[in-house]
Each structure stands twice: as structure tokens, then as C-alpha cells.
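Researcher: Batch entry, complex prediction.
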Amino acid sequence: MKRALERHLNILEFTLASLLRRKAKNLSLLAMYLLVIFILASLQFFVTALKREAAIILSDAPDMVVQRLVAGRQDLVPARYAAEIANIRGVTAVRPRLWGYYYDALNGANYTIIANDDPAIGPERVSIGAGVAKARNLAVGDLLPLISYDKAPVMLEISTIFPSNSDLIAADMIIISPGDFRQLFNFPSGQATDLAVMVRNPKELPTVAAKIAGQFPDSRPILKNEIQRTYQSIFDWRGGMTLIILASALFSFIIFAWDKAAGLSAEERKEIGILKSIGWETSDVLLLKFWEGAVISLTAFLVGTVLAYGHVFFLSAPLFAQALKGWSVVYPRFQLVPVVDVYQLAVLFFLTVVPYTTATIIPCWRAATIDPDAAMRY
Amino acid sequence: MRRSVQFLLFTAVSLTLFLLLPLHARHAQQHSGSQIAQLRRLQLTDLCLATEARYTRHPALADHHAPFQEHPLALEHFPSGSLILPSLPESDKP
Amino acid sequence: MIELSGITKSFNSGKPNQFTAVDNVTLTVNNQQITVFKGPSGSGKTSLLSMIGCMARPTSGRIFLHGVAAAVPFQQEGVDSVEITSLPERFLNQIRRSTFGFIFQQFNLVKGISVLENVMLPAYPTGEGQALFRARALALLEQFNIARLAGQRVELLSGGELQRVAIARALINNPSIIIADEPTAHLDSKLSQEFMAIVGRLKGEGKSVLIASHDPIVFDSPLIDALVEMRDGAVVASRSSR
Ligand SMILES: Nc1ncnc2c1ncn2[C@@H]1O[C@H](COP(=O)(O)OP(=O)(O)OP(=O)(O)O)[C@@H](O)[C@H]1O
Ligand SMILES: [Mg+2]
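Model: C-alpha cells for the complex:
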């Protein structure tokens, strides 16, 4: 037992000495390997965490949203739709919603404005997201000046600024009372942006949706699970896009690694012969080669993954910010709640560490099985 | 200390960190349930990721194609899009 | 004592280019002596030595090792010899590591790593604690006056220094038999004489030394105890100086 351990330590010792011989080459290989794993793992952490956040938000979403289309474009919904939908069997509640976008000419930002008759807001009071507060340099108690569609200024007192840990939901949000909303946008009364419909039994959702579509041919019911599906594919698509860009990097890395690992030079072949001739067994040589692959790939995998975790969950993924930010003026700080998908990490492990280590060992197999006396004939 | 022992210690430390990741994540998830009630009552459906694109910041859904068509590098779903470039804001023009 | 009986080594047997490198050699090599194998190129010296050193198996014949078998775990009680040609690979390797030390014509040192690491190399897979064989390696370097080169990479050494590193490496596992194949082929006469002096010292320490050579400095040396002359794979003359 102790001897077996010592044998491993000794052979590992020689592996490290022999890797250090080509220090520049092996360090750059390690750095490149580490970078690839770092980026892949970051991406994976990021997307998994975003999916989780989206799923949590969606769990509060209404069972169904009903929009009205005019010539194929979304339009305002008359209040009578709400009353009639409420009468459909199985529908428990219909809530007309008022929301829209406000373009801030001062800094080019787009805010999302939602009307809510929360008593905490009340007329001429407003709750805003941290992103809006930062873009306009505002604090609680300040006045938020908005310009209405009548070109009249609307002054609203800020009662709440949502803390930045809710940025992913509320960074660009302005919540005002329905009265202020209608005044701001000159919004026709008796109309809503869309309707949020709650249904008693989720199994009845398709039936209710069909009834609504039949009753109002210009309406478009959107089910919660359709929204869920769309979000999943957006994240998969965005993640996939980055992957395509990465694929080229990954590919060149694979070629590099393959060349490094598979091309057994005459020098290395001779070295294996020497080791055999001075008493190393085939299994000792293969152990040496195993460590040679494992030292690099295991280090890259472990360190790369841990760094990626820190990058995404402690530093809010600064490397991805540019890709996701696009032209946004209000950009949330991603304080993602960490999620680790063990299965995906295992896949990453089997796609990186295992092939590299194997590619290091396999070409040595033949060289390691030569007769020890071959070294006498160099 | 021997180089091999140093290496094994380093690997043990990084392996420990690695194995702590899922534990840390679970811990963080359990202590993150503080979503603001006022926001939950809004029954939102989306995240505030990129505020400029209507499909990423739409309390319902824009339309079926919108999420996939606006990126300059996107593979275009509609033939006309491959002929016309997205226009730049006045300030960004060379 | 090493006892060879009817050792034959054929290459490519059964094929048209079949070649018998060692032909029916029967021979006894005594312990704690210097035995030199002499003969023209291609006479089968290297082939014979590699069979004695458990590196290759003979096509036929048997090799017995007497009095050197302490390292073999399966040794029967009361029997002080092993027949090595029939042993499985694993045991052969074990015997080779513990009983034989090899010095090659080209020295066969590993480039890029230090002198000390080169010397320790045969000890790595034995599972011995590093502290032990490291101390032994340093003592060997000290003994050969190359201790100051311990951290040096081997590419930078002179021929004589390389030679001494190679000898130190052959001794690291405390073998009782040293096998040297053309050890002086790359050395000038002064270094060759120095080599013979070292070999004499090793004999004094109780080791057996087997040398293949066609260098007169080696086979005419007063230090050697036995000379075996080979031609075309066969032993043509064998004489003992004592
Ligand atoms: N693997 C092999 N396959 C075929 N022939 C071989 C092989 N190894 C050695 N031989 C042949 O066996 C013969 C004896 O070789 P060996 O190396 O033992 O001679 P040697 O006495 O050591 O010669 P030298 O003094 O030149 O080193 C040579 O003719 C050589 O060509
Ligand atoms: Mg020879």
C-alpha cells in the first residue's frame, strides 16, 4: 500500500519534472485549456442561472394573457372583453393590465412603465428600479419628471427604489398609478393593454383559450407554458450563438491538443525506450503518460470551473456583459443566484479531460510495449 | 516539499473548492427567497435582460419570430432581412 | 554466479531472413569478478548481455542466477538459484531492477532533466521512499566527484561526466551485477582508463561486472578476471586470468 503510493508520487514527480522541461509550451497549453474551460463553464453557469430566474418569475405569471390584434399587430383591448371573458366557465379572474414603454430622450434609455393600483404607490407617487435611479441619478423622495404625450410635464415623487438585487426583474421598471399612466400616455379610458386571465383548473386552459378565440376572433390568448417555452429557447439560442463563436476556438484547441498529445516524437519514443531499459515496466510508462495528460487537463478543468463560478456569480459575468448588453442604456447588474448543474459539469468533464488524457496515453501504448533491449541499440 | 506533494495539495484544494460549488449554490438558493412582494404582485413574465429589444422586455410576448431576428449576427429567418442591414443610430455613424 | 546453458537467440525465426545472433552458448560467469566479452561487430555480445540482464528472452536454453536471488519473493527455501528464462514478465522486471545495473554505449540519459533526477530515475517505480534513494543518489554523485553537477541538465556535461552519471544511475538500486555494453566506445583513452579504475573499485565493493567491448584498454586491462571471445554468435575462447 505504502509502496504503491510512493510509486505514484515518484512517477508523478518525474511527470512534473518532464513537463517543466518544455515550460513555455506546456504552460501555454495549460493556459489555453484553462481559458476554453473557463468560458464554457461560465456560459453554462450563466445560462442555467438565468433559466432558473426566468422560471421563478414565470411561476407568478398569469395563467393566460389575452391580447387583441388589429391587422396582425397588438392593439388595445376594450374593457367589455374583460367582462365577457370573466363569464366563461372555469375563468376565476380577469385583470385588465396597463403597461408600455417610455423613451427617455435625455439619455436614450427605454423604461418599462407598469400601472398598478397598489396603495403603496397612489397618485403622483412612483416606484422605480435601481437602473432607472442610476440612469437619472435619483434618490427616494426626489421627483421623477416625465413628459406626457400632451407635452406636459408629469412630476412623480419617488416612494421606493427597488434594491439592486432585484435588478433582473426591475432594473428598468417604473410603477405608477393607473390614473397617472392614462395621463402620461394620453391613454383612452375603457381600454387596457392586455388582459391577465386566471383559470381554476390548469387542464382547462386550452379549452378556455379556444373559447376566447372563438368568441373574439381578433384576440390572441397566450398560455403560460408558451411563454415558458419561448424563454427556454431564447436562452438556448443565445447560449448557442456564443457556442458557435466558441466552437472555432475550441476546434483549434482540439487540433493543438491532438497534435501535442498524439504526435509522439522520436525524442519521446527514445525516452520511453530508455525508461524501459533501466527497469520501468510498461505499466509504469503508461502511468507516467496518464499523469502527463491528467496534470494538465485536470488542473485546467478544476481551476477553470472554479474561476468561472466566481466570474459569473461573484463578479456578475463581466465578460458576457458586452454580448448581452447590446445597445441597452439601462443594463441590470446580474446578481444571479448560483445554480450548479452537476450533469452539465460532468458532460464538460467528459468532453475535455477524458479525451485529452486518453489522447496522451494511447499513442504511447505501442512505444511502451517495446522490448527493453531495444534501448541497447540506439 | 516535494513537487509531487505540492501538486497533489494544489489539486486537493481546487477539488475541494470544486466540490463546494454545488453546496454553495444550494445554500445561496435557500437564502435568496427574498423576492419583493410588490414586484411579485405584478405577475411579470420576463427578465430585464436587454431593455432595448422588445422581445426581451415584454410583459407578455411580442410575436413568435421576434426573439430570433434582431441580432446583427443572427441567421435571418426572413429573406428581406438578409438584404437590409440594421440602421445605426445617428451618433454612431462614421 | 551466472550459468548459461545452451543459449540460442534467433531473430525472425521461421522466415527467410532468419538469423541466429547467439548460437548455443554455454558459459559460467563468476560472482565478484570482471568478465569481458570480446569479439567483432555483430558477433552477438549485446544480444547475449541483454538476455543475461533479463531484457530479452532466449529462443532456447536456460539461464540460472545463483546467489543473487535474494530479491525474488517467490524463492523456494533452500534453493539459492533462479531460472530466469521461464519467469513471467513481472518477475523478470523485478529481478532486473533489483539485481542488474546497466551502462549503455550512448549512456542513454534523459535530456532536459537534472543529473540528480537522471540518477534517481531507475528507483522511481520501485515504490521506495524518495528521501532514501535521493540520499543514495547524492552519495553516489559525491563518490564520483560530480556532486556539484547535481542540479545541472545533462546536455551541458562533458563525455567523462556523462559517463560517471551513467555509472551512478546503474548503481542507484544497489545491484549486485553491472552490465556495460561498449562503455568506452565514445571515450578517449584517458577516460577509458578512468572507467576501468571505477570498475575495479566496484569489483572491490563486491559487485560482478560484465562488459562487452572491443577496446584493448578494456580487454587487456590487468583488472579483468575473465575474457570470453565470441564470433558469429558462438564462444570461441574463454579464459580466466586467475
Ligand atoms: N531485433 C533484431 N532483429 C534482427 N536481427 C538482429 C536484431 N538484433 C540484433 N540483430 C542481429 O544480431 C547480430 C548480433 O547483434 P549484436 O548487437 O548482439 O552484436 P554485437 O556483438 O553487440 O555487435 P557490436 O559490437 O557491433 O555492438 C547482428 O548481426 C544484428 O544485426
Ligand atoms: Mg553491441
